[in-house]
From TrEMBL:
Enzyme category, top tier: lyase
Cofactor(s) listed: Zn(2+)
EC number: 4.2.1.1
Name of the protein: carbonic anhydrase
Cofactor binding comment, as recorded: Binds 1 zinc ion per subunit.
Listed InterPro entries: Carbonic_anhydrase, Carbonic_anhydrase_sf
Native source organism of the sequence: Paenibacillus ferrarius
MF terms (GO), sorted A to Z: carbonate dehydratase activity; zinc ion binding
Keyword rRNA-binding attributed: no
Length: 193
């Protein structure tokens, strides 16, 4: 049985037996918060449990490394929508130790893409189109650096209120311990201030 068929088979039983009932909630976060975190598989259940979050408590946005890479990209759009349309009053940026974005090697990623069938012509065309793949496929040297950068972009975004608490934390992907990097209740212009 393929993975897709396995999922659809399970889903049919899930719906028929009404297992969804325990997850019913509204689209508005009960704890009025939005969380930007990493897509790491170890955090899927660990992060909500470590933060005492239940279904309906928070808007959770995930990407590689919990990185805001562009002030007008899809991550920031999601945060702006969460604040103005979905009643989020605080933002939590949560990275983790042992993150795959630490020291990400763009040449390695491009080589793997080529092994999976992406042609040299496509890579060259992207380069000629002004897309710097080496820069785009960059992570950070230390997880703290990534969190601080994302927190600063969010805190200083022109479309967000200046008094919006934006917190930065690092979670241990084994124990769930949270370490504070940036306290959003103390809003300096830059977390290095």
């Amino acid at each position: 049985m393929s993975l897709m068929n396995e999922i659809l088979h399970y889903n049919e039983e899930f719906v028929e037996t009404k297992q969804y009932k325990e997850f019913l909630t509204t689209k508005f976060p009960d704890k009025r918060m939005v969380v930007l975190t990493c897509m790491d598989t170890r955090l899927v259940e660990l992060l909500p449990k470590a933060m005492n979050l239940h279904n309906g408590d928070a808007k959770i946005i995930k990407n590689a490394g919990a990185i805001v890479s562009h002030p007008f990209g899809s991550i920031m759009r999601s945060i702006v929508v969460a604040v103005y349309e979905l009643d989020a009053d605080e933002v939590f940026v949560i990275g983790h130790h042992d993150c795959g974005m630490t020291g990400l090697n763009s040449d390695h990623v491009i080589a793997n893409a080529k092994k999976r069938g992406v042609s040299d012509d496509v890579i060259a065309t992207l380069g000629h189109s002004g897309i710097n793949l080496s820069r785009w496929l960059t992570g950070f040297e230390h997880v703290r650096e990534g969190i601080e950068k994302s927190v600063n972009i969010i805190r200083n975004h022109p479309l967000l209120p200046k008094n919006l608490p934006v917190h930065g934390l690092i979670i241990d992907p084994v124990t769930g311990r949270l370490d504070l990097v940036a306290d959003g209740y103390q809003q300096p212009e830059d977390v290095h201030s």
